[in-house]
Design a protein that fits this description.
- This protein is α+β, with helices and mostly antiparallel strands.
- Helix content is 58%, strand content 8%.
- The protein is built from 18 helices and seven strands.
- It has helices at residues 3-21, 36-45, 49-58, 64-94, 103-106, 130-139, 175-181, 202-217, 224-237, 243-253, 256-272, 280-287, 295-302, 308-316, 320-326, 328-332, 337-349, 353-365; strands at residues 98-100, 121-125, 143-146, 152-157, 161-166, 189-190, 198-199.
- The chain has a five-stranded mixed beta sheet.
- It is globular, with a radius of gyration of 21 Å.
């Protein structure tokens, strides 16, 4: 599929997504003749296949690929709900404070169950109780995939549950965000009816999802699902927000311009179905990024602020901040650093060979 064909598919999917989130029945004429398989690939890339499936179904169109994606989303949502409630009950009993993040909250603002796809559940928690939380997760049948190596611990349970337990909302690498959020507990509100379940105010939740989106946007990119999140949040709470507070906090984070462009694009795409000239560059960047970003964008974005020589040096030799965040053992025992270099080189040639070759390809073609 060439670039122009891809953009046409994007416009159709955006139209259908707008219908889904606004509970409108799509006009079949808007997508007649469009290859549903291509449309599905695009929707999968942006993690909105279940949402598009619901839009198509409301217009009387059923497709096996989309129905399968919708079924998977429903199954995950149900499993996540069960596992989350079990974990929350255990955390309450253990007197450990916690706060569900991002998709777990955003899913409640979508018109239908399972419409907002999620690959994992993110939860901020009392990091001083990390070992207790690990014991709880393991007693619930989760396997520890990562512990005490970075801003979050990772736990998985078959068939689909993937939980990221966040010690911090951002790592030290995102220094400005890290400094802003390192003591965020003082701003959190206790959820009604709970003793240890905390939540953001509406304003602080919006600021956080904007900061989180920018983190991905400025790295490998982010796509339509994050824009839909912004649209639905604003649709629900626009008349209730303290915009002076939001503006002040966004300025502290250096996100004033990004938030304005991002919100404008979201409201135009899914509110009035219009792509303004002002946001065209951002729009194209995001539709080609997908939900998780791309390696091509990541390499390109890094080379905007550093030479190729510096890029290579940073890829081979981790900074002290990265070392502390990703490999705390070697940060503590720096005499063993040569072994880390050998280990990372071995992984690059074996486990990560395919992605490393792609990175080299993008690196070589970058100007």
């Amino acid at each position: 599929m060439d670039r122009q064909e891809y953009k046409k598919i994007a416009e159709v999917v955006i139209y259908l997504a707008g219908c889904a989130v606004n509970s409108q029945v799509p006009d079949k004429g808007k997508f007649s003749g469009v290859n549903l398989e291509d449309m599905h690939k695009f929707a999968e890339f942006h993690k909105i296949s279940a949402l598009i499936c619901m839009a198509l179904e409301s217009a009387g169109v059923k497709n096996d690929l989309f129905l399968q994606s919708k079924g998977i989303s429903f199954s995950k949502a149900a499993r996540f709900e069960i596992d989350s409630l079990e974990l929350f009950n255990r955390l309450e009993h253990a007197k450990i404070w916690y706060m569900p993040l991002k998709g777990f909250i955003m899913k409640n603002y979508y018109p239908a169950f399972g419409m907002r796809e999620m690959s994992d559940i993110d939860i901020l928690f009392d990091s001083s109780k990390a070992r207790e939380v690990r014991e709880i997760m393991q007693s619930l049948g989760f396997e520890t995939k990562k512990f005490n190596a970075g801003p979050h611990d990772v736990y998985q349970k078959k068939p689909v549950s993937n939980f990221e337990m966040h010690r911090n909302l951002f790592g030290p690498v995102e220094q400005n965000f890290y400094n802003y959020y390192c003591n965020i507990k003082s701003k959190l509100l206790l959820k009604t009816g709970s003793n240890y379940y905390y939540e953001f105010s509406k304003e602080d939740f919006y600021i956080y999802i904007t900061a989180h989106e920018y983190k991905h946007y400025s790295s490998g990119g982010t796509g339509l699902r994050s824009l839909i999140d912004i649209y639905l949040f604003m649709k629900k709470f626009a008349d209730e927000l303290d915009y002076n507070y939001i503006a002040c906090e966004l300025a502290k984070l250096g996100l004033t311009e990004f938030e304005a462009n991002n919100k404008s694009l979201a409201m135009n795409l899914f509110g009035v179905g219009k792509i303004s000239d002002l946001n065209q560059e951002i729009y194209e960047y995001m539709i080609f990024s997908g939900a998780k970003g791309t390696l091509d964008h990541k390499v390109h974005n890094k080379l905007k602020t550093r030479s190729k020589v510096k890029y290579l040096f940073e890829r081979i030799f981790l900074s002290d901040i990265e070392l502390r965040e990703r490999f705390p053992f070697f940060h503590k025992h720096k005499i063993l650093l040569p072994f880390l270099v050998i280990y990372r080189g071995f992984r690059a040639l074996t486990v990560k060979r395919k992605s490393i070759l792609q990175e080299i390809k993008f690196f070589m073609k970058a100007k």
